[in-house]
Amino acid sequence: MDDFISENATIINAEYSILGRLASNVAKRLLKGEEIIIINANKVMISGNPDNIGLKYFQRYKIKTKSNPLRGPFYPRETDQIFKRTVRGMLPYKKGQGKEAYKRLIVFKNSPEIFKEKKVEVLQNTKELSKKSAYITLEELNAKI
Questions:
Q1: pTM for this one?
Q2: Are the C-beta atoms of residues 108 and 80 closer than 8 Å to each other?
Q3: pLDDT at position 131, please?
Q4: Peptide bond before 73: cis, by omega within 30 degrees of 0?
Q5: Cα within 13 Å of Cα(97), Cβ side
């Protein structure tokens, strides 16, 4: 596992962070050339009414088209892949700069043992916000899908 992780990569704990804010911050940093590792992607929050958020993701999977549904679009169901897809939407991933930036992103569902001793950065810890507003975590969303 240590083979693909460089020593100068920034490790970000995504626990109690809002999905859009964290993803936009990560996308900007990736375009500047940083290598970023996200841990605890299961605990990323999506703010808003949980029922509406669930409907939004359910509708993506039930798109009715005239073409063959086996040709796509395919949406991720795993929490780490949902986060990665969100960041990809904020990058120019069809151009060379965006492709290279997207390759510098690694996302883990939980916190692996190899990062226990390393310095971990927390961008915006919104634990207080979670008490005041409605939200759903990616783990809960994954259980609904």
A1: 0.83
A2: yes
A3: 62
A4: yes
A5: 10
Dihedral pair phi/psi, residue 49, rounded to 5°: -70, 120
pLDDT, position 78 = 87
Q: What's the chain's average pLDDT?
A: 83
Residue 106 has phi, psi (to 5 degrees) of -125, 130
Percent of the chain scoring above 70 in pLDDT = 83
Kindly state the tokens that stand for 122: 């927390």
Domains of the chain: 2-144 (3.90.1180.10)
Is a pLDDT exceeding 60 seen at residue 101?
yes
Three-state SS letters, the chain: CHHHCCCCCEEEECCCCEHHHHHHHHHHHHHCCCCEEEECHHHCEEECCHHHHHHHHHHHHCCCCCCCHHHCCCCCCCHHHHHHHHHHCCCCCCCHHHHHHHHCEEECCCCCHHHCCCCCECCCCCHHHHHHCCEEEHHHHHHHC
What is the mean predicted confidence (pLDDT) over 82-90? 93
Q: Which two tokens stand for residue 27?
A: 């996308």
